[in-house]
C-alpha cells in the first residue's frame, strides 16, 4: 500500500475501506479487528458490492445503459459476478451476512436484468452495512488502534505484571524499614517501583512509550509494525511524554517514601 496522505485528521471509514489510510488504521488492520467480532464477512460483502458497482459503471461508460438484457460478453460477466456476490453473502452458508427483512434482496431464477438494474442491485444492503460499520464498529476500532499501540492481551498482561511488581516493591520497602536497613541499600526499591510504574501507566493509557518513540505499534501479539499515519504517530508521542512523566513521578514518590522513612527494627 502506498504511504498514507498527510492529513490533519483521522481517516474516515470510507477512506479505510478504499485503502486510502495507513497503519494502524489501514484496511488490513480493520479487517483483522472485525475478525475478532465475527464481522469480517460484512466488510467483505461491502468491498465486493463496491467492486461490482465499479465494474457496472465502467460497462455503462463504455457501452451505454442497456434498456434490455445485453448479449455482450462483458455484460454476462457482470451477471455472473452479481450472482457470485449474492450466493456467497446473501444466501445461507458460511459467509452469510444477516440483514433485516426489509433490506434483504431476492434474485429470481431467470435473472436477466438491465445494466442499470445491475448497478443498483446491492445498493440498499451495501448502504446498510456501511451505516452499521460507521456507527457501531468503526468508532471502537479507532479508539483501540488510533489512541493505543498495544493489543488488549498485552494491556492486561501489563496490569497483572505491574501489580505483582508493585507488591514486590512494597514488600521490599517495608522489609528494609523493619530491618532498619541503611538508606543506600534501600535504593534497590527503585527497580521494582520503576518497572511497576512502567507497566501500570502503559496499561492505563494503552501506550508503550518506547514503541511510541520508535513510531511502532503492536498489531498482533509479539508482532509490531510501523505507524504510517502522521497524526497518529504524533498523538502516540504526546501520550508517551505524559506516560514517561507519570512513570518518573510515581517511581520517585514511592522510592523517596521508602528510602527516607526512618528504620525501625522489630
Automatic annotation (TrEMBL):
Keyword Repeat belongs to the record: no
Coiled coil location: none
Residues covered by the RGS domain: 30-151
InterPro entries linked to this entry: Cell_Polariz_PKAAnc, RGS, RGS_sf, RGS_subdomain_2
Residue stretches spanning the membrane: 155-181, 187-217, 238-261
Protein keywords: Membrane, Transmembrane, Transmembrane helix
Protein name from the UniProt record: Similar to S.cerevisiae protein RAX1 (Protein involved in bud site selection during bipolar budding)
